[in-house]
Amino acid sequence: QVQFVESGGGLVQPGGSLNLSCVASGFTFTSYMMSWCRQVPGKERELVGSIMSHGYVWKYGGSVLGRFTIGRDNEKKTTYLQMNNLKPEDTALYFCSTDSSCSEIRGQGTQVTVSR
């Protein structure tokens, strides 16, 4: 059974940083590109970034380019998202997926709120 456990979210002031983690299980982690997605209620899900199995970053969403960094540790079956210079518009539920179209949500996600 494919499972993701996301963590690391929280409340942070504008300009602050957070590091999200996603631990995967139930599939061969090294066979899949991993993605971070985010969703705000009432809006479409948005791709934040995708990283290929060998660590090559495939792409970032335009709104996070230069501020966020995606990474992975295949031994730990974990995908990371380092978020710097956070903005109020980054407020969302963040979740990880093997689907770069962000159409599937299998974990609970982790909430990120950027506010003073």
Q: How would you describe this structure to a colleague?
A:
The protein has 116 residues and is an all-beta fold. A 6-stranded mixed sheet has the order 2-10-9-4-5-6, with no helix packed on it. Strands 1-3-8-7 form a 4-stranded antiparallel sheet, with no helix packed on it. The mean pLDDT is 96. The protein is globular. Helix content is 0%, strand content 47%.
From the N-terminal CA to the C-terminal CA, the straight-line distance is 40 Å
In what order do the strands lie side by side in the largest sheet? Answer: 2-10-9-4-5-6
Q: Give the overall silhouette.
A: globular
**Mean pLDDT across all residues, rounded?**
96
Count of alpha and pi helical runs: 0
SSE sequence, one letter per element: EEEEEEEEEE
Low-confidence runs (pLDDT<50, min 5 residues)?
none
Number of strands: 10
Main sheet overview? 6 strands, mixed
β-strand amount? over 45%
